[in-house]
Records
---
Amino acid sequence: MGETTVELLGFDTTNPSSSTQPPTHVIVQAGVGSLAGAIVEGLQQLFGTSIKVIVVEPTHADAFFQSSCSSDGSPKSASGDLSTIMAGLACREPNPLAWNILKDCTDCFVTCPDAVAAKGMRLLANPLGQDPRIISGESGAVPLGLLVELCTNPLLQELKETLQLNSSSRLFMINTEGDTDPESNQAICRK
């Protein structure tokens, strides 16, 4: 499954040396985790296990974070009430197959408040220079919002250093959601 997913994303799985340089970091959002598991498994099959993996989910839908804290390594339910603007990630239980992939290869499970997703949406909608404008939904924009938080929030400096995020990092993120709620999107991006 992972190799097919990675091929669809434009990486040449038959000749990895012909691909662009591999990413150093993957920031991927997780609802039930199926996409995250497929992406991570495929990239690791192609490029090895040196890629730092960061899985992000909403604060109130934190099943993977809770599972990562589990002493027995089993998947756990989200601790919150699933209330979030990231509706596509508001999932109570992780996919057990995805958990089996992600539990062993994720460097960091992170939960984010809605404001982080909103920040990602605004950045994508209002790009710098000649970068294209991207209209993203909340669930799709949270990886970028998290990256910005990691790079700019002094309270996250230690985590940034632990993850070895720096100017040489090559990041891989996927926007998984378009404009699913135009009213909400406009309200968030106007702020």
---
Amino acid sequence: MSKHLFRILFGTLCLVSASVFTGCSDDDEKSLVPELTALPETLTFSEETETVQTISVKANCEWTVVKTDLDWATVEPMSGKGNATITVSVSEMASGLSERSGKIAFSLIHPEFGKWGEAESTVTVKQYASGVTPPPTGDPIYANNFDKEQATQTYGDGSYWPYLDQFEGWKNESGTGISAVTYSFNGMSARANSPSNNNYSKYEGSGVNNLLFGSNNEFVIGKITLDAAQKNLCLTFGSYLSEGASDNAFESEFHVSLSKDGDNWVEITYDRPVADDEHPQYGTWALATANFTLKEVPAELYIKFNADIASSYRMDDVTLLEGVGGQEVDLNYVAPTTGAKICEIKTAGKYKTAGTVVARGKLAYIIADEPGAMMVYHKENERAVGDKISIEGEVTIYNEDSTPQFSEDAVVTVESTGNAWTYNPTVCDASAMDQLLSVDPVCTEIQFTGTLSIDGNYVNVAIDGASKAIGSVKYIDNTTISDLDGAVVVVKGYFVGTSSGKYVNVLPYSIEAAGEVPPSITVNPTSLTFAAAGEAKTVTVTKKNADDCTIEASADNEQFTVEVSGDQVNVTAKENTAEEAISGTLTVKLMKAGEAVATATVALKQNGVSQGGETKTFTSMDIFTCTEDDSAAKAYTLGNQSTFNGEAASGVKLGTSSAAGYFTSQAVGVTGAKKLSFYAVAWKGKSATIYVRVNNGGSVSTASVDLAANDGATGNPPFTITVTDSDYYTFDLTDLTEASTVTISTSADFDTASSSAPRAVIAGIQLY
């Protein structure tokens, strides 16, 4: 005591001296009174927390750590000067222990007089074994035993317990966060019978009043004020169920939810002791506990209690305290609209609904209930027609011409499989298909007839008599209908929107030939360009519905010789010694019983010895023709039916709505100085710049040109584009090697990254 008294007297003397001798800086250290505070005052370790925690030290002197009963904890550093952060880590508890505790104190050191004594600020360290829940700490943030005034059974005709809006004796809240607290409720009454401190209670209930959950019940405690640091919380409440039956075990029909605004709720789980001694006739009071961690701490917290059944569940002694945390709760979560009929889902948002899978493709499927249908976008889904599912998640609307759809992140539960569905499509003629282009899109079941064509990833159905509408089959595996290419078909499926002002998009459940499917052939490529020195090239022929058919082929120019080998046609060009280019046409026929039942043609061209000079054409040299989509480079084929000025065109489409694109040619196979020419247009209503780069030796004089937008450059292939001479561009290439390649891009960096996502269609690419 005398030592403590000395420190007080010394500190007082120093303060007086400091106030008198304000100019004597040499005495500053002598006059200092060592002080230290450490926060938090308690560190709690459990299976819910990290094994390493920190202490914040604020001090004006040197200090050392003094550990008591903490041989199981590591404290670093053990000494310091001034402010610091101390790390405390604990070892695993030995089996058989449920908890242990110790203390961290601080020995203070005066710069002149040495040891000064211990700081008043200390930190208690506690550790709990796995399965042991630490008790909450600190004063309650909110507490209410509902016992301000005892309720009486004198309301109504004099024999009823009061509803909460008839009696305020249940408002007995206390705690640090109640300054603005509010209540809202429905179907709730205050009762003074079956108290929480009766003989069948498993906790020390307050007794007197409790709350009974009646019909359409809900009890909300609103605007509980939280500090930003109050992240880990513990909610406890007395709970009771009595249905008057022989089994009154508390069940999951009682719900607890949290909110930051009273509108969007997140349900949390709680623990409640349930044992064999749960009273079968009267029910049992027990304390339920919910440990949780708020992902983000709101300024105000709302707590909602509700029960699924009426007049059976009761509650008492609600308390909210700081705790060790537990289940993470994201109060920014927006709960889905539940129980919605599919036809009621018309806007973007979160929804929960149910339906039967009635059409399925590899990229999406359709679910339906009796009044409506909608699409679920889900790549490589495993759904099957007849699956009955519940689905919950984000609904988006791709654009104003699309119907609402669930995203592939939606959570799907398959309730049953193999369910029957009765289809009843609306038959649409040409006029009705045209009309779908101008109405607000609603996912509906339709049927239409037309001629089907497959071009790469695109399946279109030409409809006789339609002024604009073209059926577009979406989201399926095109190989499953390849035999119907060129046939008149009947499509049955679900309308999911329109695109490019002409395509009626449908996810089908049935595509069948309207009659006998005629034989057909396609050729790839549809044009060949040969070197002046002469060379051989191959055309691949694909036959469909061609039983008992053979292939014949011929060229209309003797410069080209033709040989058929199975499903391939080999074309050889003789040497061209003239400066002029030579052109011709290869005709491929599918023969049956001596008659041609299908025909396809291939444009042939051979460069002159000077490679023909500048030659404007809409077909590209083979080395510059994109024959397969390259999604990584965002370079896409123009397909077999694109035209420029009414003539067949080949080349490449670059870019998408969200990325630039680039295409690299094959090796040019020539050396020296050459010219590179092509037609190019920007996307409809957009701008784009084309950049050219030479690789593996060589250079280009002008590296870029700006393109004009073209109304025909829109939607998906086939493109129908009209160009003029102003859309024709020429680049001078020098120092080429045979290994040189040429990259054409809509990005100056020759990659897919672009803030403007320019798109371009290029055709007639020639090197000469």
---
Amino acid sequence: MFIENSNDLNSAIEKNRDWKVGVVVSEYYSEIISNLLLGVDKALENLHLPKTYDLYKVPGAFEIPLMCKKIINKYDALITLGVVIKGDTDHYKYVCQKCADGIMEVQLENGKPIIFEVLMVKKIEDALKRADIENYNNNKGFEALMSVYRTLTSIKRAIK
């Protein structure tokens, strides 16, 4: 069931160009989010797909799971992008855990993939490294979009 190479992925995408993907982003650290979205766009370009996805913005990472729950039925898959940077309080720990748990719950309840790229880092430099626009192989937005199509293809093959 594993996609062996990019030709397998491209073939699967060509047969399923109608897959709908939604992207949910946190508005915190907007420069990093913008770079992650550039990664999503670059992945679509590499797959020869139009840059069409619905974008939903929420104030912070804590709100991402609720938005996912409200919109999941409109899509074949979702991508979540956000940034949480560890500070001096316990806030980081609770936001990260609840965000991850909430997204997993929505994914399992609905049987649809939600690609989790909420960056949980110790310092802003770590997030910037994961939102690289010089080398998209280091961009988690790029990786997320590729993961959507790999996951959808694997699921489709598994349930045949």
